[in-house]
Structure formats: C-alpha cells, structure tokens
Amino acid sequence: MNLFRYFQDSVAVALGELVAEGALPAGLDASRIAVEPPRDPSHGDISTNAAMVLSKPAGVKPRDLADKFAVKLRAHPEVTGVEVAGPGFINLRIRDSFWQARLADILRAGRSYGDSTAGGGKPVNIEYVSANPTGPLHVGHGRGAVVGDALAGLLNKAGFKVCREYYINDAGAQVDVLARSTHLRYREALGETVGDIPEGYYPGEYLKDVGRALAERDGPKWLGTPEAEWLATVRQFAIDALMIGIKEDLGALGIRHDLFSSERKLVEAGAIQAPLEALTSAGLIYEGVLEPPKGKLPDDWEPRPQTLFKSTEFGDDVDRPLKKSDGAWTYFAADIAYHLDKYRRGYAEMIDVWGADHGGYVKRMQAAVKALTEGKGALDVKLCQLVNLFDGGVPVRMSKRAGTFVTLRDVVDEVGKDVFRFMMLIRKNDQALDFDFAKVTEQSKDNPVFYVQYAHARATSVLRHAAEQFPAAELTSEALAGAVLNRLTDPAEISLIKILASWPRLVESAAEAHEPHRIAFYLQEVAAGFHGLWNKGKEDATLRFILSDDTEMTRARLALVQGVAHVIASGLIVFGVEPVEEMR
RNA sequence: GUGCCCUUAGCUCAGUUGGAUAGAGCAGCCGCCUUCUAAGCGGCAGGUCACUGGUUCGAAUCCAGUAGGGCACGCCA
After folding, report:
1. N or C: which end of chain A has fewer CB within 10 A?
2. In DSSP terms, which residues pair with A320 in a beta bridge?
3. Tens digits of per-residue pLDDT, A270-301?
4. Taking the model in full, what pTM does it have?
5. Which of A218, A252, A286 marks a domain boundary?
C-alpha cells in the first residue's frame, strides 16, 4: 500500500464533495495535486498543495480553499488534525493506529513489502554491460553492470516485466583485431617467439590462455595460412572464450542476463535492411556531405559524400552517417536495427546503461528510436560516470602497460560482491564515484554498506535473543503482526514506523525516475532510525526491545524490529545484496 | 567552436520531479559504555544552493545568458 495514494484518494473525494456542494466549479484539473510527506516532519505526516493548485482556476484564494478542504478532511477517520499553513498547504496528522496497522502490513508482507503494481506488467528492456568481447571487464563496466542490474530489480519490484539484456558487439573492426591478437598468441603457444606485441594488437596476457586453448583444439592447422582462411574461425573462438570470461565476472557479481544478443547475427540476418528502408521511405535518409567539425580538425579530414540519417529532425545536432566509406554499415546503423529489434520484441520502453564517454551518442539513438517507432518507443539512457579507485586515500594508478590494470574481478574478489554492489549504488549514476579499498571494508559508520548491514544483523540478533528468552512466545513474522501494536507509542517508535511505511512510495518514485541510488539513501535512513532506537534502550531500560517482565510489550517491539529487518532486506534484495544475519 | 553532464556546509554528497525555516555523513567541538552486538547514539557549530536575469502564489529545482570542471565531436565501438 502506497499510503500517499490512499490519502490522495481522500483528497479527491473531498474535492468531489466540494464540487457537488457548489463550492468549487466542476471540471478542475486535479492532475497537479500532490500528496506527499512535508519536508519538515513538524508540519505533520501528510501534506497537499491541492488548495494552491486549484486556487487560480477556481477563482478562490488558496487559504480560503484550504479551509474548505480542511473541514472535509477533518472528518476522515484516520486523521487527527488538519492545519492550513503557509501559502495554503494542508497538513494532515494521522493517528498512531494507522501507522501501527502499516507495521502489521509489513509483517504480513515480509520481504515483499513494497512490491507494487505501478508498472502494470508493462515490459521494459534494460540493456547493460554490453562490453566488447575483447578483454576482461574493468571497474567501469562493473558500475554499469550493477546500476543496470539494480534498476532491473527495482523495476521488477515496481511491477514491470523486465528483460535484462546484453548486446554483444561481435561485428566490426575490434573483433578482427581480437582475432589477429589471438592468432599471435596461438602461434606463441605452438612454440614461436612473438616478442613484443605490435601496435594495433591487444597486448593483454589473458589472450595467452585463449591462444593456447585454440592450439589445443585445432593444432597447427592455422599456421602459415593466409589470414582470410583463419580469421572468422579464430575470431569466433576468441569471442566465445572471452564471453565465457565476462559471464564469469558477472556471475561473481551475481548478475545473470536473460538474453545475449549478437550484433553479428543481427547483421548477418539482414536485419539492417528493414529499418533503413523504412527510414528511406520516410525521407529521412539521404546522400550528403557533412560540414567539417568545428574547432580542431582531424588531420585527414576531407569532404566525402555519405549515407546520412536526418537525426537533426529529432533533436540531434548533426545528421549521422550510416555507412563507412568502404560501404560497410557503421555501428550506428547496426544499433538502429538492434533497437528496432528490441521494440518489435515488445519493448516499447527501453533503457540503455552506458559509460559516460558515450554521451555524444545518446541523442542520435533516441532520434532513431523516435523515427522508427513513430514516437511510441521510448529510450532512456543512463550514463555512468567514472569510478576512481583509491587505497587508503591514495589513488590507484592504472596502466595496462605497467601491468597495474585493475580488473572488475580483482576488485570483487578483494571486497566481495555485496560491498561492491552497494558502493556502486551510493551515488547518482551521472556523478563520479570514489571507491576506496580501505574504506569499503572498514567496519565503521563511515562505511555505508557496513552501517546498513549491521542494522539488519542487529535486528535479527535481537530476534534470536528474544527467541531464547521467550521460548514459548510466538515470534514469527505472521504472529508478530497480531501483536498488540498500539503499545508502540514512543515518538521514536512511531517515527521509525513512518519511515518503514514510506518504503512502497520510495520504490515507486525511484522506479519511475529510474534512480536506484535513492534506495541506498533510504536504507541508510532506516538504519539510522533503528540504531538510534536501539541506543535509547541503553539510556532508558524501559525502551529496550526485550523486556523480560512484559511479554506483550516485547512482542510489540519485536514486531518493529522484525519490520526493520524486512524493509532493509527488501531494499538490499533489490540491489542484489545479501542481507546478513551476523557481522563477522 | 558545438552538444551533453556537472557546480549545494571545510570535505564527500542527498534534495521525494516547482513547495514552507535547503538536509545527511565525515572532519571540528561537547556529551554518553557493569546493559538486547558502543562495530554505536545524542547535541552544538557550519550556507549568497557558482553568478546574472526571467517565468509565478512560490525556484537549489524550469528558461536564457555568464564563469569554472568533465565527456564527446565523419568513415572507432
């Protein structure tokens, strides 16, 4: 239950009554009415701008209108107080029993609390990672992987039907380079001395294994033969081998895509033709010559006629080429076909997670999606900024050449998948992120992963202790839902329940905004509320969760503790992070 | 030169899609452990939301411009 929706309905009912009574004209636009928590909790539990939004079209002063609403809302059974404040805000105070009932909701729902039907089962495609199969994943890929995966988890919780997809760029020049580099290592594996890896080849050590595996499978078959004979075979062999490695790296992070789509297969199946024809008949493709780029001119720039897509008609800055000068399709052309393919598979809503260095590519891709789907398809692109690695405050310098390149796997093996995942979600995706090996493994409040995990562990620990002390009491989540929850009256207890009860709304708004990081901040808020409450028991023994002489109160408090554990677990699960029961 | 992103407390960052007196954490200062895990908690102090205009009941948020930082800029992906 999103309780703000619940009260939004109450406001709508009040509006209807006022209209029926002739106090307000009919046909007012209610869409801008917001029902939300006030920024300042001292203003109440629920706040609405209804009077201010309706004031002008209704021709009534906002404060006067608010007073009319206040009369109606005061009659609401859950409302204990209504105040009109400031320019015309209507603030509601909700009775404790309402919040206590929400805690019971949480206990009955367990970790699925916050599951929403807001998405209505609508299919959403999230394409993330999609790293070129030319080497192991690095930390930047890891951020995109986690952001994409958490977003998928979030949308899934919000009621969308999510497809997690990986686009394999296995066509194009870079995989030919991969094939040649692998062939070199293959020759090396068969006893040749290759010396330094020449320019234009991938130097990575990881290709030695691939070359050796190829030598084991095919023997000397590809020695001394012209490139044209072995290129395709070696290429596919290397791509397959590297994709296995990439999937292992992702697996270590707990990420499994539903679908891997191959660019090469798409191109070979002739999928590029259809969208191009559609664009051509729409008059969006032409042969033309682009203006030279302003500013620094590339050395070899010369005007050339090209096949161009009129992306400027859809908000792009310049039209974009679809064919290279040798007649081959550009990556963009294949990507157009790929996005149309996703759309045809039923995904009108698409999300791509890219590195920030692809920022210049967003507009043209969105232009293409708009053009090909007649505006019915929507593409959102989440750009992930850099991850800066530190160790104890000292930047970790990375150089492929010096062999100090840090792979995603290195980091995950060092700090664990849960720490890595949480840390990747602690910043907005378009914000650069510092990752300090020393800090993220530290067990202190400075470390948000620890802080949140500890709250969950502490909650489950309290429940364990209680089970020992009250062997006869029914302490399952379902049983605690039936505890005498109106004994929870301490302001700190009620305020913690209010935080927990805002989880469904947070899920919906974070999902709508495609912003999983909001969950990280929310979980820290829950953890802080819980740690604070726990500590009150230190100062005032009557506020402890476990009171050996009062089973009824203990059960009510344990209900709250269990609720905290459920909500934290629910959030961590969206992130793909395991809620721990004990800190080790 | 153009486009996109960013600029909020000493530092790192949130800011619920335009709401009320702009919030956390760290660092600083002051307190709190014979106790359910102190691996923690409470309090104080800290602000020209880069700057200038505009839009309106109301702007950190939207628009225009200025300054600074990052990324990208035909046949790479």
Report:
1. C
2. A309
3. 899 888 888 988 889 988 888 776 655 666 67
4. 0.94
5. A252
pLDDT at residue A302, as a whole number: 74
CB of A89 nearer than 7 A to strand B: yes
The CA distances from residue A139 to A191, A207, A534, A571, in Å, are: 34, 19, 37, 23
CB A24 within 8 A of CB A14: no
My answer on whether A68 and A185 are in the same domain is: no
| Predicted ipTM of the assembly | 0.92
CA dihedral A330, A331, A336, A338 (to 10 degrees): 130
Tell me, what CATH number does A537's domain have? 1.10.730.10
Q: Does residue A82 fall inside a structural domain? A: yes
pLDDT for the residue numbered A1: 66
Final residue of a structural domain among A229, A252, A275: A252
Question: Which positions of chain A have pLDDT values less than 50?
Answer: none
Q: Taking a C-beta distance cutoff of 8 angstroms, is the pair A308, A322 a contact?
A: yes
**What are the backbone dihedrals phi and psi of residue A81, each rounded to the nearest 5 degrees, phi first?**
-155, 145
Q: Is residue A378 part of a domain?
A: no
Q: Is the CB of A288 under 7 A from strand B?
A: no
Q: How many domains does chain A have?
A: 3
β-bridge partners, A384: A355
- Is residue A187 a part of any domain in this protein? yes
CA distance A301 to A303: 7
For residue A327, being part of any structural domain is answered with no
Is A375 within 7 A of strand B by CB distance?
A: no
CATH number at residue A79: 3.30.1360.70
CA quadruple A275, A277, A282, A288: dihedral, nearest 10:
100
- Report yes or no: A193 and A157 within 8 Å, Cβ to Cβ: no
- pLDDT at residue A401, rounded to an integer: 52
- In the beta sheet, which residues pair with residue A48? A35, A90
Residue span of the structural domain in which A228 resides: 173-252
| Per-residue CB contacts under 7 A with strand B, chain A residues 512-551 | 512-513, 515, 517-518, 521, 524, 527-528, 531-532, 534-539, 541, 544-546
